Amino acid sequence: MSVETENAVDSKHEDTEQPPAASPPVTASTAVGRTSATERDPISSEKFTFWLPPNVIVNPFDIVSVGQVNQPDMPRSTTYGLVTLLEHRTDAPNHLANFISNNFGELVEVPNTPRQGTTVAFANVLSNNADIYMPVPSDRLVVFADPAGIQQALGTDTLIQDRPHDAIPAGLIKMSNGAATVAYLDRRYVLGPESAHVNISGISGLATKTSYAMFLIQSILQKASDPGKIAVIILNVKQADLLQIDQDPAHPPTSEQMRLWEALGLEPRHFTNVRYLLPRGFTSGQPNSYPPVPAIHTTYAYDLEGTADKLDMLFSNVADPAGTMEGIYGEIMTGITGRGAEFKNIQSWASLLDFLREKGTQGKWRGMFAGSSLGAFRRHLRRIVQTRQTGVFVDSRSTNEKLLTRELVNIKGGWTYVVDIAKLGDEEQSLVFGDILRTIYAVKAEEAEAREEKGPVPEKIIIFVDELNKYAPSGARTSPIAQQVLDVAERGRSLGVILISAQQFMSAVHERVTGNSATKIVGRTGSAEVLQPDYRFLEQDIRMAVTRLIKGELLINHAVYRQPVKVIFPLPAYRQEQN
Fold first, then answer.
1. Which string of DSSP letters, residue by residue, matches 25-79?
2. How far is the C-alpha of 66 from the C-alpha of 91, rounded, in Å?
C-alpha cells in the first residue's frame, strides 16, 4: 500500500491518530507500525504489540507512542511504550512446513510456497498523558516518541518544567531513528529526602561502573544550586585510577565526547578542591599507593589509640559463629577507650599483643574467655596489624601521619576527598571504609567530637565505593562493617549521607543495601547473573537484553521511571592512565 493510500485510509481517523498538540501529526510516513490485537495475543493495559512494515528498524529500549482514546466526553490521550522484544512471524504452521516448502531442504532453490511474514514488536506501557490506562485499540499507528514525549513517558516532564534545579542529567537516550534526549534523575530521589542512594552493577571492564559513577557525581555537582553544601568522599580501589581527578586529561575530549557533554547540558570538567588521603607505607615518608602519587597529599595511619574504638571492624572478615571474638574485642574496646585500670599501660599494638599473651596463660580472662580463645584472638590480631599488614598500622604516628577520623570529622562542603585503599589488605580496606562510614554518620548525627574546622557540616555527603560486596555481602551473617553499611543505606538519606556503590554482581551484595537504592544502574551482565532474584525489577525480556549491552551502554532503573531506560554517557574529563 502506498503512502498516499495509507494516508487516505487514515483520514477518517485523523483525530484518533493524533497525539497531544505539541507533537507532530501521526501519518503513515512517520509511523513505524500498527498496533495488533489477536484472539490469542490481546493488548492489555500493561502491554501492547505492533507489527512493522518492511525496512523499518526498531530496537529494544526504543520508546514509542500511540494514540489511544478519542471520545467526545474524554480527553485525547497518548500511550507511551518501551519496546522490550521483537519477533518475526510467518503464516507457516511449523518449521517442518518451511522445510518442505523449500523442496524438502534444498538451500539453493526458491521456496515452492512463499511465506507471508512480518516483525512484531512487544512494548510495555510506560505512561499515558491523560492517565487513561485503557488498552490501546488495534490498528492504531505507532510512531517513535519525540524528545518531549520521552520525558512525558518517563514522568520527568513536570520535573524539568517545574523543578529544573532538581533535574540531574544521567545520560543520553538514543533512539533507532536518531532522535535523542536527556534521561534525568529526580534529585529528591538521589540525594533525598524522598529516597536516595545509587547502586551500579555489571561485568568488570565492560560496564564502566567507575566512569559512570564519576560522571554522575560531576553531573550532581554541576547542577547543584549550591555545590558548596555538598562534600564527596571517593574510595580509590584500583591502581591509581582516581588519584588524578583534579588534573586535565592528557588529550582533550574528542568531538563525539564534546557533543555528548553538550547534549547533556554539562561541561567536561575535572574535579576541583580535591584532597588526597593516602595510606602510610613501610618506607618512611612514602605512601603505599600506586604511581603517579599526587604531589600534594595527606598520609593516614592507624595507631592503637586512634583505632581502639574500631577494633570490631578489624574482625569483620573473621568467622565468629559463637561470638567469642566479638566478646573479646568488646571488652578491649571498652577497657582502652574507658581508660580502665587493667589497660593503663597498653598504648601500642605491641603492648596489646603482649597483654593478650600474658592473659592467655592465666586461666579464664574475666571469668569468660579461655586461654585458647585469647590465643586465637591474638593470632588474628597479630596477622592483621603486624605480620601481614601493608604499613598502615603503627605503634606511634609521626607528625606527618594523620588519623583518617580526624581528617574527615572536619569535612567541608565544596570539597572532594579521595581515600586511597588500592594496595591495602582486605581487613585494612574494611577498617578504612568502616572508619569513613562511622565518622561521617557521627558527624551528620552530631555525635562526633567537636569539629576543629570552622563552618557548617555539609548538607549532603556523597560516598562512592566500588566492590561493595566486600563490605556488605549477601547472606544472613551481618558483620560490624556490614551493619554500618546497612545503617547508611536505610537511614542515611534522613541525615544527608548518600551512598553511590558499585560491584560486579548485584546478587553478591546484601539485599537490604540494593533494595534501599532508589536508582539502580545495570551494565553488561552475564546471563546467569541476571536470572538471580536480585534482578526481579527487570522483566525477563529486558534481562536478556542486558547481556547484549556494549561498553558505555547502561540501563537506568530510577524511582520515578515505570520502566528502565538505556543510556550512553561521556567519559569523565580528568586525567587517567589510559588517556
1. PP-TTT--EEE---SSS---SSEEEEEE-TT----TT-EEEEE----TTS---EE
2. 26
Query: Is residue 209 within 8 Å of 505, Cβ to Cβ?
Result: no
Please state, in angstroms and as integers, the Cα–Cα distance from residue 455 to each residue in 109, 403, 463, 486, following that order: 82, 21, 20, 29
Of 158, 148, 170, residue with least CA distance to 63: 148
The candidate with the shortest Cα–Cα distance to 190, out of 558, 565, 547, is: 558
- Beta strand pairing call for 63-67 and 78-90: antiparallel
Q: Locate the domains of the chain by residue range.
A: 3-145, 166-173+181-301+397-568, 304-387
pLDDT tens digits, residue range 529-562? 999 999 999 999 999 999 999 999 999 999 999 8
d(CA 479, CA 133): 47
Rounded Cα gap, residues 420 and 394, in angstroms: 18
Determine contact, residues 52/141, Cβ cutoff 8 Å: no
184 close to 160: Cβ distance less than 8 angstroms: yes
**Pairing assessment for the beta strands 78-90 and 117-128 based on DSSP bridges:** antiparallel
3-state secondary structure 301-322: CECHHHHHHHHHHHCCCCCCCC
Quick one: DSSP state of residue 22? T
Return the C-alpha torsion angle 416, 422, 424, 427, nearest 10: 80
CATH fold of 166-173+181-301+397-568, please? Rossmann fold (3.40.50)
The Cα angle at residue 417 between residues 411 and 418, in degrees rounded to 5: 155
Instruction: Please state, in angstroms and as integers, the Cα–Cα distance from residue 306 to each residue in 253, 379, 382, 402, 483, following that order.
Output: 44, 21, 17, 10, 21
Residue 183 host element (H or E): strand 180-186
pLDDT digits (tens, 9 = 90+) for 341-395: 889 889 999 999 999 999 988 889 988 999 999 999 999 999 999 999 999 999 9
Give me the amino acid identity at 533: P
Q: What is the pTM of this model?
A: 0.90
What residue type is assigned to position 274 of the chain?
A: V
For residues 164 and 545, give the distance between their C-alpha atoms in angstroms, rounded to a whole number. 32
